[in-house]
Amino acid sequence: MMFDLPNHATLYAALVVRDLSFDGRAFIAVKTTGIFCRFGCPARRPNPENCHFYASVAECLEAGYRPCKRCHPLRPAAEADPAVQSLLSALEASPGRRWSEGDIIARGYDPSTIRRAFKRHYGLTFLEMARLSRLRFAAKALGNGQRVIDAQLDAGFASPAAFRAAFARLLGAAPGSFKANALLRADWLTTPLGDLIAVSDQHALHLLEFADRKALPKELQKLRMAVKGNIGFGRFAATDQVEAELKAFFNGENMDFKTPLALNGTPFTRQVWQALRQIPAGETRSYSSLAASIGKPAATRAVARANGANQIAILIPCHRVIGADGSLTGYGGGLWRKQKLIELEARFKNLPA
Questions:
Q1: Any idea what the Cα angle at residue 215 is, between residues 214 and 220, rounded to 5°?
Q2: Which of 85, 148, 238, 328 gives a 20 to 30 Å CA spacing to 46?
């Protein structure tokens, strides 16, 4: 059962001493690993700035975190209920499956009993847990020309309103607003740092952002307005190309990004973005040094705004800009990703960007 959580400092202090009075009443989610744990987890304690605290398993899952394989935050309920344990194991074995009440019945369980058990232990039902990973498959179905109602049902959403709401939270618009055979097309790319949304036309890549970036809905809305709503799901050659280049990058093979880019910004912002691409891999710059490099040393704040306006992650390496004191500064994809990208690029330090 959820309760009002204490403040961050109190919870972190309890985590440090592994205060088991919070076990099952609060959960720790770690930004740098993307996992969530019980308070008694034996793993090394994360730094406080990397911690989020949630009152339920449901909140952790809905925020995009996966359960820890050391402390198994789902296991206490599973161990107490063989039916819960069986279904969780089945879900882990087939995470992309579209589960239904019929599947639950076929396994010899009463759907109402299972619904109450999962709701009691996790704050969401088994079917809701399974559906959290299926929304992006609905987008792919829409990109292939499938009707909205069919994509909704394939994604496991019985309610059109719930499907539209979930879709809008992620992409900033209802599914029906995305067109078939559109000028701009959006698709998912899977990477070791999380899913990316790529938007391209027949000639260039317009957007490449982490799917959990808070600014993504507004960025997509801006693109829709620019093309008068002519945006849909699917991909052009630029998306295929950047997917292959990102795979080579994360595999440590090369970072030879040649995907054509559509730089949708003012002349000044485009100048800043081009300067970002001139920073050698494995190196970083401060905002002030970046401003000086374009001949505008007094424009540090404007350079910072242009850096934040970048909507093509990794290829336009805004993650290479750090604070004047050497500390990591804000990054829309999360500071943990920024740190990881800098570390990954260190492998290519002596190679041309």
A1: 125
A2: 85
Neighbours of 56 (CB within 10 A): 19
Q: Domain total for the chain?
A: 4
Long-range CB pairs of 302-305, under 8 A, 24+ apart, other chains included: 302/268, 303/272
| Stated pTM of the model | 0.57
**Residue 51 bears catalytic tag:** no
Q: Is 71 annotated in the active site?
A: no
What CA–CA distance (Å, rounded) separates 246 from 259?
Answer: 10
Integer distance in angstroms from the first to the last C-alpha of the chain? 52
Task: For residue 24, give the CATH number of its domain.
Answer: 3.40.10.10
Listed residues 23, 44, 67: the one ending a domain: 67
> Which residue among the candidates 37, 41, 60, 68 is catalytic per the annotation?
37
Token duo for residue 164: 């539209």
144-173 pLDDT, tens digit each:
666 655 666 566 565 666 665 666 555 556
User: Cα(316)–Cα(183) distance, rounded to whole angstroms?
Assistant: 23
CATH number for the domain harbouring residue 314: 1.10.10.10
Instruction: Give, as one character, the DSSP assignment of residue 235.
Output: -
Q: Cβ distance 126 to 87 under 8 Å?
A: yes
